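Q: Hi! First time doing this. I have a protein sequence and I read that you can turn it into a structure. Is that right? Here it is:
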Amino acid sequence: MERRRLIVVAAGFLAVGPTFSSPLRWAVWDKGYAAMPKLASSTSPPSTLLTAPIELAGDWGRMLPHSADLVLERMRHACLDGVRLVSDRQPSRVRVDEHTSGQPAIWLHPDGSSMAWIIVDIGERDWSKLAYQFGHELGHVTANSWQADARPAAPCQWLEEAMVEAFSLRGLRRLANDWKLNPPFAGDNAFGDAIAGYRENIIRSYTALATGQGLTPDAPAWFAVHRSEIEIPGLNPFAQAMSVTILAEYEAAPDCVEALGALNRWPGRSGVPIGEYLQRWKASCDELHASPRLPLRLSELLGVPLGPE
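A: Yes, that's right. Below is the predicted 3D structure, encoded as structure tokens:
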């Protein structure tokens, strides 16, 4: 069994950017740090993605595990505070596994457990990159792409990548603001500006892509002209460009974010045509009593009518 990576990086930007993978093999993590999750009492409410214990695994080098924990928890709250978690497939714990090479990813492990396994690859105490990579992969977990059958597939995987990239960029803005006011490390308020600058550099690059591709003035024409390239699975340059448009939707209508929890709850997941994908997503929102605003808005933006019910 081999690891499958699905990523296309735009013009050398982001030497280590997030992606989504289906390796179906076990990680070696016995040399890393692992925090034992707290045992829940019989009267405890079910854990959610916001409350599930986070444990560390892998090679964190000389970084103190507690420091990484603090950053991960801050980013999780930045991404999820105020978001209704509507999914009926939320993990009971989250493992964050630091690798010293390779791309960040979701590790699809066929052991039947309810653990979401996230892989990151950062430099020593590179908290901006850790928050960014974790936020992207947390977006996949929010979108029900963490269980063993969550294999990424064309033609709609690119759209999930764009949505979870926007999810991470939204979280980075909130994290930067929180860090400046209440840093996790004493006297480190100024690092909030570094996080904001890291985020702004990504957005600036993606905005340039959107302008160059023609997305900004005419999204339906952009999709029609470039569709064969857009639908290549992964965070390709077109998905990167689209993420800025989706970020604007998240910021304008925060209930768009909750719709991620209704993704991928149907046979075929991202492997169905986009009109059918958007229709199944809307139906899933209706089933979970989640706002269907985002699938409806994407249908309008891309000029793609919803498929038959």
